[in-house]
Amino acid sequence: MFLRNSYTEIERALKNQQYPSFIDFLHDIEQIKTIFEESGPPGTARKEIMLDFCTKAVMEAAEFFLGNTINEAHLQQTLAEEQIKKLQSELLEIKQDNKDRFE
């Protein structure tokens, strides 16, 4: 429960794309880890619980960042393809205009 409550704000920021990079996200996870080690609830398996929680959080975030990166790459590819088609069309038009002028 301690870890879940600590992670709520980080998870919200992640889903709202407020982290500029994965490294920034990892920095916050390290802060949670430090806080848990210093003032988290006691227990025999506390390190394992913390590591398991952090591993799951990092894997979820990695999938999120990767998905965003893939979507951005697809968008950039689509925009580039549209720009190429536009430029090719303009080039054909210029060639045709030049051909018509010299005939």
Which labels suit this protein?
103 residues; mainly alpha
Brief sketch in words of this structure:
The protein is mostly helical. It is 86% helix and 0% strand.
Sheet having the most strands: none
How many domains is the backbone divided into?
1
Beta fraction? under 5%
| Residue-averaged pLDDT | 91
Percent of residues in helices comes to over 70%
Whole-angstrom Rg: 25 Å
Which structural class best describes the helix and strand composition?
mainly alpha
- Dominant shape: rod-shaped
N-to-C order of helices and strands = HHH
| Topology, number of strands | 0
Q: What is the number of helical segments per DSSP (H or I, 4+ residues)?
A: 3
Given as residue ranges, the uncertain stretches (5+ residues, pLDDT < 50) are none
Alpha-carbon distance between the two ends: 81 Å
What are the SSEs and their pairings?
Layout lengths: L1 H14 L6 H18 L6 H57 L1
Helix pairs in contact: 1-2, 2-3
What does this structure look like?
It is a single chain. The protein has 103 residues and is mainly α. The protein has one domain (2-102). The chain has 3 helices and no strands. α2 runs antiparallel to α3 (46-102). The longest helix is centred in the last third of the chain and has 57 residues, at 46-102. The chain is rod-shaped, with a radius of gyration of 25 Å. It starts with a helix and ends with a helix. The mean pLDDT is 91.
